[in-house]
Predict the structure.
Amino acid sequence: MSSKITRRDNIIPLVTRQSIANRYHTVTKAINREFWNYKSETAHSFYVGSYGRNTAIDTSDIDILIEIPEDEYNRYSDTKRNGQSRLLQVVKDAIESTYSRSDIRADGQVVKITFSDGMKFEVLPAFPQTIWNAGVTYKYPDTNMGGNWRTTDPKAEQKAMKEKNNSSNGLLCATCKHIRTIRDDSYSSYHLSGILIDSFVYVAMGTWHFTDGDGNSSSQSKSYEQALLDYYDQVSLNGLIPPSLSAPGSRMQIDTSKGWDVLGKILNKMV
């Protein structure tokens, strides 16, 4: 059975988005108090992940990046035994001072917060790294394998996604949300990351766009859904070999070894 893509604006209700914002402000304030010595609810933080790219469909994974002062980096980097883990612990303790009754735990690269209503936050502490003529990237902790530092550029990804969503008249984000909905409804036991979905759609959709307010995509000799499947088959030998894929804007490599087969199942379900 085919599954046509339509507009999916405000899929997360306003009251839920307000709750997300309130908790975001509270978490930001707690960490700013710990690392910056003042109580701003908005400075040094922003949404990342699916919610930050405007492709989220629920509250199971709200990602926040919190900037840590650059001069703190050496303090944790010079720690001989997993300073990355120590940084996550300090962030965890700061959040617990406000949300003492929530389930809060450090996990790999983030501090996870599970609220009593089921909403989940993942807080990523990161050090801004200013690169001449290239803006700001972020260095974040990874406690696995004894601890190391990784790099991310979420602002570049968000900028690229926003620009292409605007040029496609909303089709980019609508497609990403549509694929997530099918994933969660029919393939919830499989792993298919949001960044893989968004990165694939970003390049696969080409110049397709919504042409009217009802959500119909631009008319060509074949359907938009078929065009997505054709691109998938073309770049991966009908799904047999996961291709190289990079994130929009940042050009950082995406791991396609997990979830590529599930993406193919979803695309076939859509045509």
